[in-house]
Amino acid sequence: MILPKIKVLHSHGSQYIPDLCRVELTEEFRGRPILTQSGSHAVLEAAAQRCPTGALSTTPFALDLGRCMFCGECARIAPDSIRFTNDYRLGSPTRQGLVVHAGDTHIAFPTAAVRPELPHLFAHSLHLREVCAGGEGSVEMELNATGNVNFDFGRFGVSFTASPRHADGVVISGAITEQMSEPLAICYDAVPDPKLLIACGTEACSGGLFAESRAINRTFFDNHTPDLWLPGTPTHPMTFIDGVMTLLGLKTRK
Amino acid sequence: MNYTTTHNTASAVRLCDIPTVTYAEFYEDLAAKLSDERYHIAHYFALMEEQSRLRFYCLLLDDHTAEVLITSFTMDYYAENALPSLTALHPQVHPFEREMSERYGVCFGKMPWAKPLRYPFDRINRSQTIDNYPFYAMTGEALHEVNVGPIHAGIIEPGAFRFVCNGENVLHLEIALGYQHRGVESLFTTTDNRLRQLLLAESIAGDSTIAHATAFTEAIEKLTHRTAQFDTERSIALELERMAMGIADTGALCMDVGYQLGQVACEALRTMTINTTQAWCGNRFGKGLIRPAGTNHPLTPQKAVMISHNVAEICGRYCEVCDDVRNAPTLLARFEQCGIVMHEQMAQIGGVGQAARASGMQRDLRTSHPWGTYQHIHHTPITETDGDVMARLKMRFTEVQTSAAWIAQLLDNFTPTEPSSPDYTTPLAASSLAFGLVEGWRGETCHVVVTNSTGAIATCKIKDPSLHNWSALALAVRGEGISDFPICNKSFNLSYCGHDL
What we know:
The complex is a heterodimer.
Chain A: H1 2-12, E1 33-35, H2 41-50, E2 56-57, E3 62-64, H3 73-77, E4 82-84, E5 99-101, H4 117-122, E6 126-132, H5 138-146, E7 158-160, E8 169-173, H6 178-190, E9 196-200, H7 202-206, H8 220-223, E10 228-230, H9 237-247
Parallel strand pairs in A: 6-7, 6-8, 8-9, 9-10
Antiparallel strand pairs in A: 1-4, 2-3, 3-5
Chain B: E1 4-7, E2 13-14, H1 23-33, E3 39-49, E4 53-62, E5 67-76, E6 83-84, H2 94-104, E7 108-109, E8 143-148, E9 160-166, E10 169-176, H3 184-189, H4 194-202, H5 209-223, H6 231-256, H7 260-281, H8 301-326, H9 329-335, H10 343-349, H11 353-358, H12 365-368, H13 374-377, H14 389-412, E11 432-439, E12 444-451, E13 457-463, H15 466-476, H16 485-492, H17 496-500
Parallel strand pairs in B: 6-7
Antiparallel strand pairs in B: 1-5, 2-11, 3-4, 4-5, 8-9, 9-10, 11-12, 12-13
Helix pairs in contact in B: 4-5, 5-6, 6-7, 6-14, 6-16, 7-8, 8-14, 14-16
């Protein structure tokens, strides 16, 4: 009975990522896009027409990652103007910060936009309550993965907890369905102050494909502003880890 | 009775070629056919036509002949007569009848358990809300109720579970869903942007991205008269998805009984599997991979080697985990004889996928209604007989290994397809019906696309395997200790958003 376990343990070896700040994703990964003010305007218009969520605008030329589905079609139509890189550092402390303009070389993370008490309060221990409000499961699985044997975000004292009473903040995934709008508000209210709020995934940031759906109720954001916006379909675990670490001052961007 | 007979690889059916029968004929024929396990309903839905008439379409699958039988009947939207319900005879009809009565107010006479299904925003009775879901109640001094949800303890989707317990024993579980309703089906009809429709299909259930995207794409290709050229790639992607989720579920079951070694070993293996998908198409869940009549991510020889190498290693290591679990009495004590769903029950509720096969049913679309590559590889359904948590876990063991073997075989004989760009613009055949039937990792995934006279999508009806299998979970926990609910739940691992749409 012990032999099979030894075999599993032996094959498993060591799986954790030694340095979470040095991770590079595969070239294929579609992360932060680079926009260049070149190429034909008509081609760009065609790309904007095809965009499933209206994330791409031509005048001014900008791509809103808060609405982007990262399907990459615009970059195929207008390769001279748009290119997706494998940079997963997509988090921003403001919603406006998710809009990428021509010439941008990174997603800005101005510390002035971060509530000053957050690093002081949560840099050594952060327990989060996740609320899925219309997420289709992929963002949720990626958030689970942040604590798994590979990413092990728990090494920085960041983990997820079951009770909102034990939590320091709420992570929202999904476009916020009508039927989940009230449970979400109740859960958020149950988290004691001081607390932080994270919108995780393109659907949480803007509603994504469901922004226009009548089954969605996003009034929660009328009264509550996230401290961190994380785009992605789904948000890659490294995007989450990088975003939270930057928010808490554990790393700086550029 | 009158049916249009087609099969999973045939082209779209013109609506005028679908016979219209009377409800009495429909009722009589279905009542007889569904008594035989070889038949089950793939989809049954109503669609509003001109002049306030509802046309009801039913797609019936015959597992012996690979046929898909399609028929329809109509009814005046304002008619007040009740249609005799089929649910009492065949519980598998239940979710369909619930959906039609909730959406259009169709009255099914003597339907047992006549409750809303998912509280869609366009339901007929807006005063019915999910907050006042009519849970079944039992009274008695010894009994108590336990409510779980809609928000659960872990990072998972919301849904409300109401247990009626006698002490620790569950007498009854009722599951109220609808919290995840996003209006997916209606969004297919409000846009003519094919890419947007495809991304919607990819977003129906995150863990079944490939299955749903393939089902929708197959339907679209039938409506555009394009033959798929990427069958092998799609099968490889689908089997990778099956491997990833089989491994994830094995790890989750180990976690729920506190077996950390099994959990972390599976976490690492799942990471490796989805990273393989990511190295192929840039997304760990395969978003962006399945596109109509083309692909943006051709399977190059280098990528084929990478996949082949990774799959072999994953499978080898996963087999060691399976071996370990099979030899651990402490784990078997939890998994065996727990959460049993009998074959007969599964057949009645119309269970699909690996959960149904764990109860001894032979139901697998890869065998019964093969499409694409599955027409050539002759998959034999993998079954277990016990119908308990262990049987569903053993299904994962075998399915993961079989998928790995299929991937290896498909890659061995793989010749790269000439790359071609996806087709987002070819007009759809007007006034037609096309379906995509795909055996995803969770089970039968069905998309039915109906177009109107201008070729726009009039409706896209989606059936996720979870629709029927949620009933199986409710049956599984009857008589079990409530503390066994988590492992029963994980052993099914059903989708909330796939059900709620």
